[in-house]
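[DERIVE STRUCTURE TOKENS]
===
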Amino acid sequence: MKLANKDVGLIGAGLLSLVLLAVPAQARTNFQETGGLTAGVRSGAMLPDSDLDGVLSLQGSGFLRYWLMERLQVEVGGGYGRYTTTDVLWELNEATNVWRRDPDATKDYYTHLSYIQGRLLYAPLLFDTWVPYVYSGAGYTYFNVEKEHTTPRRGTFSGIGSTLGVPIGVGVRYELGNRIGLEGNVEYTFTWSDKIDEHWDRAGEASNDHFMQMSFGLTYDIALGTARPPVIPPVVRVPPVIPEPPPVRPVDPPVDVLQIADPPPARYVDYIFPVITFQTASSALAAAERRELDAVAGFLMQDTDVLVDIHGHTDSVGYEVDNVSLSWQRAYAVKDYLVDRGVDPWRLRVEAYGSRKPVASNETEEGRRQNRRVELVPVQ
């Protein structure tokens, strides 16, 4: 299949429309809080945009990504493609040393492209199973001409060269589950060389050689950082059973008897415990949260009769098994901090709920921020 350069824009606009139509109107994302790296491979078609007509050829690439924050990701990758163009056939009459052009005959010309690129991806919308994104970056492209042009218009060139490139594109990822995703993207790469197709003008009148890529591939999320604790059932603290003293029988003559009072009933605790919040996919305590826990530790050291349940929570982003583990990690981070400040560990009971008990909507960033929390509940 051969396409003229004027068709490149129409192809890109059509594929972008398909991507936007594929995204549902209402959903939630589970893409931005997977944590760690995302590895992937993709393949598809490459279409040159140069002085000659471009021909669709195969290309493939691999990449690694790392999430910088909730919507932003950095990617490093490399790939290979064949830059194929077609031109009318020129023949040289050696007897007269005159070039002749055959308008009815064409010939394909090939250039091997190898490239490495760094990209910055941004997800403007966060959905449940579909995650659209846009990206741009910079890279280095090495090219090697396989079939040289036979044309009176080419300058002197060895057929091997390199150039810088700037890719821009759009893509969409579909969550298949179990950390696996299916991706598609459309990309246009600008270069600073007019020699990739080996058809160039020594006077510099011709434009640089660019190319478009259309790819599909698979991705896999790899968790990094501190290992989250396994999901274990909460430890139920059973208070010790104090046997009642035997009844005291009066004696004759009466004597003074030590009366053993019943344990005091549970009392109301009027101290207002703070809610400890966390960053996305993190169990680290911020400086403001540590100051609040210092005050909590001071209160518990003064009132040693108070017992506290520590409840860990997350937002609804990500896999629930990861959310439950993360809520354990956040709750234990609070407990360990209080124990380090002198609170007896047996007075603190840890429970984890994952995303099952939100206090705000998970449809907004502010709501998700409120749900990434640890609550301290006094045992009444």
Summary: Residues 169 and 308 are 52 Å apart (CA to CA). The two ends are 76 Å apart (CA to CA).
